[in-house]
Amino acid sequence: MAAPFNSHEGLVPEIREETEERIRATQTTQTEKATLCRQTMTATTFRVRPAQPQDCPEILRLIKVSCPRTGGWGMGKQVPGGGQKVVEAPQELAAYGNSPDAVKLTLLDLLKDGFGDHPFYYCLIAEVPDDAELTGTLTVGFAMYYFTYDPWIGKLLYLEDFYVMEPFRGLGIGSEILKKLSQIAITNRCSCMNFLVVIWNQTSTEYYTRRGALDLTTREGWHLFRFERKELLKMANED
Amino acid sequence: MAAPFNSHEGLVPEIREETEERIRATQTTQTEKATLCRQTMTATTFRVRPAQPQDCPEILRLIKVSCPRTGGWGMGKQVPGGGQKVVEAPQELAAYGNSPDAVKLTLLDLLKDGFGDHPFYYCLIAEVPDDAELTGTLTVGFAMYYFTYDPWIGKLLYLEDFYVMEPFRGLGIGSEILKKLSQIAITNRCSCMNFLVVIWNQTSTEYYTRRGALDLTTREGWHLFRFERKELLKMANED
């Protein structure tokens, strides 16, 4: 597999609880710092790499800060890494009338689901140097993906979420993430990469279309349907 | 996991080659027989169970016979298990101007991808008694699924493909498959079940909507996008 991570090293439950508190407390500070940090950056100072278990607190922070919940699916896709509109992240959140509390996923879920024997997702993260951080880096973007299957053509790479913090856009971080995702797709014999975009998000649709993505909903009529938990419970218990 | 299958028992490459030939040769015969067989069936004679490696030839036959290729995604969803329109399968194929040869997936792919150490898909199959078959049963439907991930709510069950042969519709096989899928979703702590439907397929959309499924494309604007292999190769090799 593209990103084999099989341990929960260095994160026991007590630390996880504390870390979640820290995420909430430092969310605004991190995004303010990012704006300052961006001023001294050049295009060559970021790095994109596969996530490790110890990156989970930063991934969760980015999931929470990234984008609005409009009903169900991956949020980061709505404001992709390559968007050129630069605003501060708290304004971005406010603009969508959303709250990080809407994220039900916990740090423990992220660890368990992404780094166990059977990972349900993989992540790439983008980081920049930051002496003020214990790790010496600040995580400024991420892409969450996994592999799906098509009974006609086999394996696909599915891009579930993709986000670069606003102050760090326009540096090529989004393009570098897409490049690495493409390489992972090809290495793993995937015939294509699928993802969902909210059609009213013009920045996103233009970003992907410019790079050659096809809108299969408009072209072929594919609609995303969902049975919510209530309907699943009803069907599961039918006589 | 819901369906742990870890062996390729009883299927060596030579047999696979032969079996693929057999699939092609017997496709029409099977569907003609199914029409006759249907006449003597009652609603209680079918069985829905997790697929085993030895079911792969039948799954591939159903994938090929099931539905038209209109560009990319799972076909069976276009004519779901509960559709009430009963026509013979060859007519159905012809009506969509399609050919089973459009399926690129081989029996070896199906075996390797679904029954290795890291399965990319799982299947339920529906079968009916048939003394004329060596196994004593005829496979008349299947559902292909896997688990995906949402960074806000965690694990989902994704229904990739779902098909019941036309002569066997109206017996409750589709409902039984949906019931079992719902149970698998709940057992595996999935918050919902997602799937794609081509919106012009009225039979399908009515079938799912009647059971309470929500169309998230119409309600929230989610569009399916795709980077084809050509674009992936281009991005992967960018400087």
How would you describe this structure to a colleague?
The structure is a homodimer of 239-residue chains. Helices cover 38% and strands 22% of the residues of chain A. Chain A is built from 8 helices and 7 strands. A 5-stranded mixed beta sheet of chain A has the order 1-2-3-4-5, with helices on both faces. The longest helix of chain A is centred in the N-terminal third of the chain and has 27 residues, at 13-39. At the A-B interface, strand 3, strand 4, helix 5, strand 5 and strand 6 of A face strand 3, strand 4, helix 5, strand 5 and strand 6 of B.
Descriptive key words:
7 strands; five-stranded mixed β-sheet; 239 residues; alpha+beta; disordered N terminus; homodimer; 8 helices
Task: Please provide the count of β strands of chain A.
Answer: 7
Q: How do the SSEs of chain A run, as a string of H and E?
A: HEHHHEEEHEHEHEH
β-sheet strand percentage of chain A: 15-25%
How helix-rich are the residues of chain A, as a percent range? 25-40%
The major sheet of chain A is characterized as: 5 strands, mixed
How far the N terminus sits from the C terminus of chain A, by CA atoms, comes to 41 Å
Gyration radius from CA atoms of chain A, angstroms: 18 Å
Oligomer: homodimer
- Which structural category fits the helices and strands of chain A? alpha+beta
> How would you describe the shape of chain A?
globular
Helical region count of chain A?
Answer: 8
Q: Of all protein chain pairs, which has the greatest interface, and how many residues does each chain bring to it?
A: A-B, 81 and 81 residues
Any low-confidence stretches of chain A, pLDDT <50, length ≥5? 1-16, 69-97
Physical arrangement of strands within the biggest beta sheet of chain A: 1-2-3-4-5
Overall average pLDDT of chain A: 78
